[in-house]
Amino acid sequence: MVLSSTAYFIFLAAIFFLYWPFARVRALGLAAILFANYFLYAKWDLLYLFLIPAASTCDFFLAWMLDVIRNGIVRRLLVLGSLVLNLGLIASLKYMPFFLENWSTFRGEPAPEWRWVFPLGLSFYCFQSLTYTLDVYRRDAPATRSLLAYLSSVSFFPTTLAGPITRVAVLLPQFERKDKTVSPQDNGKALFVIGLGLVKKLLIADYLADNLVNRVFDFPDLYSGTEVLIGVYGYALQLYYDFSGYTDIALGSALLLGIKLPANFNRPYAAANIADFWRRWHISLSNWLRDYLYFSLPGKRSRIMPYFNLTLTMTLGGLWHGASWNFALWGLLHGLGLAVHRLFQAVLGKRQGGAPARVMASVVTVQFVCFTWIFFRAADLAGAQSVLARIGSGTVSFANISSGVALVLAVAALMHYFPERWYAWTVDRFTAFPFFAQAATLVLLALALQYLGASGAAPFIYTRF
């Protein structure tokens, strides 16, 4: 069920009206949320109705034992069990064909068929689940005694497909609160961000994908070098508006149920450097990689290892996005970029320079990020090479860039750099309307956008990961 589809909003409305009459009875409210979570999983594959509850229950009891046991060896074995469970799910249900294919290529044999691959990747669920067991292991958070609250929070349906990856220790207090209410301001903000997410997805991301990006990346030789370059910039905007649009719908859906999820984007193409980019792009994944992978690697006090660890962390983060050498190379490039930035900071200090230097640094950062997006988007390394070769041809033509594409690109770029105070002012004006007027506006917007989208709502890009 795509979060920008009519079916999803009918489902969300049903859960909203089912949940709030029971919200004051904690067990009934949690049961309603859990029903919604598992219903959404079942829509993808009925196997998830066994897999997710079984894995979540295992992690719940592992965390409970981590909380009460003091023996260091036993605790390490318990957290290792959680790591094996969650990383094993990712490896077996997502990466096994990739492993088998590469191993078979190395041995010169045909790759065996692997049937245990399912339509919905579990990367977001597994990473979110690991935040809980790892936090309890580190004594950064206590273990909950409520299995129902844990099951509801770790598989919370707005975050199922593409995050944000939220620490379960942050979600649990919100789910366990007995006097749960939602203010009119929060209701208004929820509807506003859902509407904004729909605009981002259907009017910008899907339009750019259908009318520019897919064509350029599928058949780069049919376009001039400048048109392919514009297609790369278009993909940078498509990916941002697609993923941030999903995040807006997820945040708004959660807020309607009284749950506040963390922000996942903050104008990433306005970043001053590559480190700043990763503080603004997919913030929840950046924080996860930093807190649970990078800080766990050895050699933090040495001179060389932090640079290696940055590169390794981002390479693994690239592979997390998909079982492809393209993603590994994308992550490696970002890891090298972060290592070089850290080296410059070590040598030159954290001097900012004047305004021209800061602007130039930001421009260079955006160019580097867009260059790496080529490997992220291309079907394989050969496809990325074709795109780069076409850009390098130096041919100039804009014949295939329609006025509609040019307009959407301009609007998308301008919207990205809007001052935050403009956004806050718009939210305040919308929340001043009565709730039913807000809801009616959202319904009309959704219907209009579905009508304008001739091909319907396409799946969000990050739901593949």
Number of helices: 18
Rounded to the nearest angstrom, the radius of gyration is: 23 Å
* Content of β-strand: under 5%
**Helices and strands, in N-to-C order?**
HHHHHHHHHHHHHHHHHH
The count of domains is 2
* Contiguous runs where pLDDT drops below 50 for at least 5 residues: none
- The mean pLDDT is 88
Distance between the termini: 16 Å
Largest sheet: none
Helix content: over 70%
The backbone outline, from C-alpha atoms, is: globular
Name the structural class. Answer: mainly alpha
Total strand segments: 0
Quick overview:
The chain has 465 residues and is mostly helical. It contains 18 helices and no strands. 40% of the residues are buried.
What is the secondary structure topology, with strand pairs?
Blueprint: H1 6-19, H2 26-44, H3 48-68, H4 72-107, H5 123-137, H6 147-154, H7 168-176, H8 184-218, H9 225-256, H10 274-280, H11 283-293, H12 305-321, H13 325-348, H14 355-377, H15 381-392, H16 403-416, H17 420-431, H18 435-452
Helix pairs in contact: 2-6, 3-4, 3-5, 3-6, 4-5, 6-7, 8-9, 8-16, 8-17, 8-18, 9-14, 9-15, 12-13, 13-14
Task: Give structural notes.
The chain is globular. The protein is mostly helical and 465 residues long. The protein has two domains: 24-179, no CATH class; 185-457, no CATH class. Helix 3 runs parallel beside helix 5 and helix 8 crosses helix 16 (403-416). Helices cover 70% and strands 0% of the residues.
